[in-house]
Amino acid sequence: MPYRDRTTPEPVQCPCGHGRDHYMVSAEAEYRVLGYIQLAFGISARPTKVKYRCRRCDTVFATTKDPAVLDKHY
Ligand SMILES: [Zn+2]
């Protein structure tokens, strides 16, 4: 059996089976402290991490630091 490529994103789901793109799942940006201060002053800040939370079971089942995803939440 070939070794699984760890860079390949696996289909991740919360316990109720919602994937990242499900409408009940919201992506929450997480910022450094400086980022929150910038946001408070109305300056857009680049998040350091994006968390995927299911709004039904309130589970954060995935996080990403993918720059392409972070840019979407800039
Ligand atoms: Zn869920």
Query: Unreliable segments (pLDDT under 50, ≥5 consecutive)?
Result: none
Q: Helical percent range?
A: 10-25%
Distance between the termini: 41 Å
What structural category do the secondary elements indicate? Answer: alpha+beta
The SSE string, one letter per element, is EHEEH
Number of helices: 2
The shape is: elongated
> Strand order across the biggest sheet?
1-2-3
Largest sheet descriptor = 3 strands, antiparallel
Beta-strand segment tally: 3
Tell me which ligands are bound. zinc ion
Please tell me how large the radius of gyration is: 15 Å
Mean pLDDT: 89
Percentage of residues in strands: 15-25%
Account of the protein in words:
The chain has two helices and three strands. The relative contact order is 0.23. It has a domain at 25-72. The longest helix is centred in the middle third of the chain and has 8 residues, at 33-40. The chain is of the alpha+beta class. The site of zinc ion has 8 residues, from loops.
Write the layout of secondary structure elements.
Blueprint: E1 25-30, H1 33-40, E2 49-54, E3 60-64, H2 67-72
Antiparallel strand pairs: 1-2, 2-3
This protein binds zinc ion (ZN).
Zinc ion (ZN) binds at residues 14-16, 18, 54, 56-57, 59.
Protein name: Transposase
